Amino acid sequence: MTTTVLVVDDDDAHRGMLRMMLKSWGYTVEEAADGDEAVEKVHAKAFDAVLTDVRMGKVNGIEAMKQILSYNPSLPVILMTAYSSVETAVDALRIGAYDYLIKPLDFDALKETLNKAIEHSRLGVENRELRRQFSEENASTEILGRSPAITSMLSMIRTVAPTEATVLITGESGTGKELVARALHAQSLRKDEPLVTVNCAALAETLLESELFGHEKGAFTGADKRREGRFKQADRGTLFLDEIGEMPIGVQAKLLRALQQGEIQRVGSDKSEHVDVRVIAATNRDLRKEVEERRFREDLYFRLNVISLEVPPLRQRKEDIPLLAAHFLSHYAERNHKNVKGFSAQCMDMLLHYDWPGNVRELQNAVERAVILCTGEYVTGPELPVNIAKLAAEAMPKSSEVSSSLAGLPLEEVERRAIEETLRETGDNKSAAARKLGITRATLHKKLRKYGSDKGDAE
């Protein structure tokens, strides 16, 4: 696929140099000598990215960017600016610029930034196509993903679901264990019968026993009538025992009997009843460790663990984040009657670089919050929870120049980091660093004294 970049600069020599460099990297290049011409070209033709200077004689890069993004908000615009214009460039990030690069350009940083920008600009189209494919090919599951881990798990579900095997689903909180249970039931031979769910962590021991097996009238205080339990409700269907690791030892023994013999006994009754139930259990605990510490019966563990399915944490399937985020955005935009179309490239960067300790549930909550707070058509960084934006920025790889992860930092901090990085590149040669930064050596020394970093000259 041809990748076309629009280069905008009123300096013919600099524009020509960029044209040759980008073509050597395999890009198709078109040029514009000012912002007006750039806007006209964007209206006339599709581009994958725009690389524009900020200071130009007629319409400057910031104004051109505003007009370009009002026409096509998903088109990444990268600004080129002198160090003295960094404050303007940082403001431009808030408006919607994908990134900015400091002149003189570091070509490695330029190449990396362009690659990332173009990859993100194509995510929207790719995600829509993926969602269509998943809706057609995986109609019986709510699990979204194309990562190897999820693809393997979906294959396992398809293999195991039609059997009568008991399944133990493991994984961290928020990974979607209940969705796996639903998928197993939906693809099983019992799909037309009930799927009954019990949260084993939500009830005390006496109440949990009654919830599972039912009780006779007068069996305990408050039992004013006979009640069917969840096993009976799930007869011929599937019983999903969530948080099985929280089940008290006393109830575990009765559960084992139900699994082994297919019989249950109501609380307060001495008669057994036959039930035909397939059991699926889930836990975020290490049940083998629970067995070793005598908090979980070993015989019940082996009875439940006929087939084990581990749901991977989101940090191990980050390639699924764009698809999941797009799905949640569509859902919450419709639910909240908002015209939110997608994520800015910078916002998607934050989502991809955050580790998601709360897994898919945390991502879902973050997207819901962002949609509610979003005032435009595209979610940007400020709408995300503060901890996500902060930690994601810290995790983003640092380029050799001031990177997009500096967006939102105080200008003084941006300046300090730029100076320190340039000094590292020049081997602490202050004359060379000053030239790269576009300032005098005297100014550089003054700023280093301000930051407490002046260690003397290196020529």
What does this structure look like?
The chain is an alpha/beta fold and 459 residues long. It has helices at 12-24, 35-44, 61-71, 86-95, 107-121, 123-137, 148-160, 177-186, 205-213, 230-233, 249-261, 287-292, 298-304, 321-335, 345-353, 359-373, 386-395, 411-425, 430-437, 441-450; strands at 4-8, 28-32, 49-53, 77-81, 99-102, 167-170, 195-199, 214-215, 227-228, 238-242, 263-264, 273-274, 278-283, 307-310, 342-343, 378-379. It has a five-stranded parallel β-sheet with strand order 2-1-3-4-5, with helices on both faces. Strands 7-10-13-6-14 form a five-stranded parallel β-sheet. The two termini are 47 Å apart.
What key phrases describe this protein's structure?
single chain, 459 residues, five-stranded parallel sheet, 16 strands, 47% helix, 13% strand
Average pLDDT, all residues: 84
Helicity level: 40-55%
Shape: elongated
> Order of strands across the biggest sheet?
2-1-3-4-5
User: Hey, roughly how much beta strand do the residues contain?
Assistant: 5-15%
The number of E-state strands comes to 16
Largest sheet entry: 5 strands, parallel
**Rg from Cα:** 30 Å
Unreliable runs, pLDDT <50, ≥5 residues? 133-140, 397-405
Helix/strand class: alpha/beta
The total of helices stands at 20
Q: Kindly report how far apart the N and C termini lie.
A: 47 Å
Q: What's a quick, concise take on this entry?
A:
With 459 residues, this protein is of the alpha/beta class. It has helices spanning 12-24, 35-44, 61-71, 86-95, 107-121, 123-137, 148-160, 177-186, 205-213, 230-233, 249-261, 287-292, 298-304, 321-335, 345-353, 359-373, 386-395, 411-425, 430-437, 441-450, and strands spanning 4-8, 28-32, 49-53, 77-81, 99-102, 167-170, 195-199, 214-215, 227-228, 238-242, 263-264, 273-274, 278-283, 307-310, 342-343, 378-379. Helix 3 links the parallel strand 3 and strand 4 (77-81).
